[in-house]
Design brief:
four-stranded antiparallel sheet; 243 residues; 5 helices; 20 strands; Methylamine Dehydrogenase, Chain H; alpha+beta; 2 domains
């Protein structure tokens, strides 16, 4: 083999090894290993790198070596989880609050809903949690609860229809109320930004910012831009496949 071919072979092997070393390891855990049920709804990572998972059986904590299960206080399914600073916020059936470690390193639960004497809608579940500018927002299908981390005041945004999406895009909060449109939350008050039929009648899966405009990914119709008050489809090669 020539020196040139040997050099090419060496460089190819070196690049392959370097690339493979950059790939992160993937661990797969069975229900037996993490000690809970097979349905997980949400996941988050705390500042200390611990992983927290919302599971049918309760709150799962993984420290990189072992799993710990904390049963839900009312024995229901935990639907949402969000780590922020030294607390783990969770939402579930007819309740939401936070977990905090005691002096022994064990998580203890505090119900914000009970402390604030919140009256839930019948069979209400908290499906999503978002942190924004000193507030923690808990979203059910009918309401958004805004909890101020400093004053501990709770504000409630009511809806007539299903709240399909709540998300933070850069420094702004948006949510979709079906059959009404997309809203922006300003100082705890919803402000309608578009009631275009595309954004009213189609479930929005996610909202992004692209080239200064809002980009909406709908469940069945594809991608749409909101630009200067007008909604237009984002033309991409995969539109035919999506449709």
């Amino acid at each position: 083999m020539s020196a040139y071919k040997l050099l090419r072979l060496f460089l190819f092997s070196f690049l392959c090894n370097s690339y493979s070393q950059e790939l992160p390891p993937i661990n797969v855990f069975s229900t037996k290993e993490y000690g809970a049920e097979n349905q997980n709804w949400s996941i988050t990572q705390a500042s200390n790198k611990f992983i927290y998972v919302a599971n049918n059986k309760g709150l799962l904590e993984y420290n990189g070596a072992r799993w710990q299960l904390y049963p839900t206080p009312n024995e229901s399914i935990i639907r949402s989880v969000k780590a922020y600073k030294n607390k783990i916020y969770t939402g579930f059936y007819m309740d939401f609050g936070y977990w905090e470690k005691n002096n022994f390193g064990i998580l203890k639960y505090t119900s914000i809903a009970k402390e604030k004497n919140i009256k839930f809608i019948e069979d209400e579940q908290v499906w999503n949690i978002v942190e924004f500018d000193g507030w923690i927002l808990f979203k059910s299908l009918q309401r958004i609860y805004l909890y101020n981390l400093k004053t501990e005041v709770v504000k409630i945004i009511e809806s007539d229809n299903r709240i399909a999406k709540l998300t933070k895009v850069e420094e702004t909060l948006y949510f979709q109320e079906l059959y009404k449109g997309v809203f922006e939350i300003e100082n705890g008050i919803p402000k309608l930004i578009s009631d275009n039929p595309i954004l009213k009648d189609n479930i929005i899966v996610e909202i992004f910012r692209k080239d200064g405009d809002l980009l909406f990914f709908t469940q069945k119709k594809g991608f749409f831009f909101l630009r200067d008050g007008e909604v237009n489809q984002w033309i991409i090669p995969s539109n035919n496949i999506i449709s």
